């Protein structure tokens, strides 16, 4: 199939059609594999007829692309929309799951951790640290990406970490997600969000949004236009395989809801966004995949020893000042510090005579024992599931039904990311 894909792309179609080329090849490949299994195991005339029809549709679409006529370029999506019922019937598409108020996620604080927390004294060594360099992202936004780069890719359960700066007129217009969760923490300014299910709102300084994409969501995230600059963090977290088909959900967490922990001398303050610090626990049921998310501020002369659940992956992202971890490495702002998995505490301190306080985000998450196959905003456990996500999005089916012709109000000035 790859030589055929290269031949199609070499016909100089607009770059926006590359995803459709992939979809067409998927249909051809799926027809072949489905035909074998259907003819072998379910010898019904109805299925054989469906396969023949699908072969005809696929052939017509490929011819339309190959001839590269202006009239034919508009054909594939129209035919795919008409063929959607056939595709759903042939591939045994499951009906949309019903939403439930029941929280399906894993425990935020493991039972084994509670039993041993008082005896945690083994520091975690630093595996490595590196500077997160600025790059362009979205429409006019600038991000410092540390996770999701060649230096730190698929650090389970974490997929991506962006420290973003978004001026008015820039942002992240309409775009899809499937198979992951996002945690957005706003440090300065304001961000509006809106999705195809009618959910909308605004988060301000110190607020967070926990979004579970599940089987599919399409939304927009745009800066509040009245602010000069909007700064925050966005973390992408993988979902356990058995939860990737869950219904999408949101949970906004307001700054005033976040409990605060302090060391006995008052020189360290921790916003316990998710997890536990100094005996203070956060709110529960924020994300399906267990993640500890702590915003730590250390005054000169301050020291904190922070517990981390055993076996979880952990890292720190530095925001301000100079902070020394485990009495060994002093780190400047905008660095990602990755810790070894052995050990159960992280120690951080600021020199007594330092000119300013330090601030960093400390994050830990439960590893997921599963493959990660990612294509942009679609995160699955196999290549076949990625192809399926592309087809579902292009045909507005299996979770993306409401994406057809949907346009957010907040993203209208910037168009749609397709």
Automatic annotation (TrEMBL):
Span of the signal peptide: none
Domain spans labelled Pirin C-terminal: 294-398
Pfam families, per the entry: Pirin, Pirin_C
Annotated Pirin N-terminal domain residues: 143-237
Keywords: Membrane, Transmembrane, Transmembrane helix
Membrane-crossing residue ranges in chain numbering: 48-67
Membership in a protein family: Belongs to the pirin family.
Full protein name: Pirin-like protein-like protein Prn3
Organism: Exophiala viscosa
